[in-house]
Amino acid sequence: MDRRMIAAAAAAVLLLSGCSMRQDVTAIKTRAEELGTTDAETTDAEQEESSPAVSSSSSAEEESSSSKDESVTEEKEEVPKVRREAVDYDIEDDYSFVLDDFEKVYSNEELEECFDKLQEICDDADFPLSFSYMNVDTGAYVGYRREQSYMTCSCIKAPVIKSLLEDDIDVNETVSRTYTWEGDGGTVASSAYGTEYTVKELMEYSIIESDNTAYYMLCRHCGVNAFNNMQYELDSRYTLGWDWIFTYCTTDDMLKDYVDIYEYGEDAKRGEWLIDKMTKCKTNIQIGEALGEKYKVAQKYGSEFSEHVFNDCAIVYADSPFVLCIFTNQTPETEESCRVFKDLALVFDDINSLIAAPEE
After folding, report:
1. What is the pLDDT of residues 49-58, one digit of tens each?
2. Which pTM does this prediction carry?
3. Residue-range domains of the chain with CATH
C-alpha cells in the first residue's frame, strides 16, 4: 500500500478516536447537568476519566498524610500532664471572707493574688453580696457574709426536687393544672386548665424553665416533708411549709444542699437525671455563662424583681469539682447585675485550680 494512503488512514483513525473522547466528556457534562452537579464536580469527573493513575496516586498520598496526622494526634494525646508540686498552705488570713480547710496548694503566691482579687470584688460591691464556695474533693471553703439571709427564689427548686427523687416518689403520676402562679407566663401556666402533667414533667419545667406554676403543683401534690427531713439530715436551718414554698436562707445553708445534689448525682441514676436537667436551664447568664465553655455546669438561678433579689447556685465540673452559691440584692437579670457572678466565678475557678488534689 502507498505510504501516503497509510498515513491518511492513520490520521482518520486518530481523528475518530479524538471525537469519541470528546463525545464521552460531552456525555458526562450532559449527565452532570441533568443531576444538578456543580462545575467543580464535573471537572473532577473529567479528571477521573482522563487521569485515573493521578487520582489513585493523590488518594494514596492523602491516606498517607491522614495516617501521619493521626499518628501525630495519638502521640500528642499520650503526653502526660506535668503535675505541679504541692506545698503546705501558708497564707495569713486577713481578709473579710472566711477561709477553711486549705491544706495543700500548688502556689501560695498565686493563691494570695486570687484572694486579693476576691477582696477587691467584695470591697467594690455597692449592694448586699454573700457567697459560699467549696471544693468537693478537699473540702476547701471560702465564705463571705455567710450568715446573712436572702430570699431563696428559684434556687430552692433543685434541692426540693432532689428530696422528692431520693424519696422514691412515683414520677409517672399525673397532676391536673388547677392553679396559675401570679404573674407566671410559663409553659404550664399558659396551658389550659385541666391539662395533665406527670410529676417528672413538672420537675423538668421547674428546673429548665423555672416555671413557678409547675413548682407550685409539684409541692402541692408531693408535699414538702421530704425536703424538710433532708434539711434536718444536712444540719441546714431552713424549711418549707404548705403555702411557704419559697423562703429565706444563707449561702452556707444553700451550699449544703448543692453539695448534696452533687453527691446524689454521683451515686444515683435519678441524681444523674437531675444534674442533666440543671445543665439545660434556659436562663444561663451568671456562673454558667462565665465557665460553661470550659466545664460542664449544673446550675439553678433565682430572681425576684419586686424585692431586688438575684441569686445563682452552681456545681462546676472542673478537674476537681466545686460548688459556688452567690446571693445578692440588686436589680436582677441585667448586664450590670450579672457581672459580679461572672467575676466571682472566674476568680474561684483560679482558686480551685491551685488547690492540690488529695493524696491517694
Report:
1. 443 433 444 4
2. 0.78
3. 3-78 (no CATH), 87-353 (3.40.710.10)
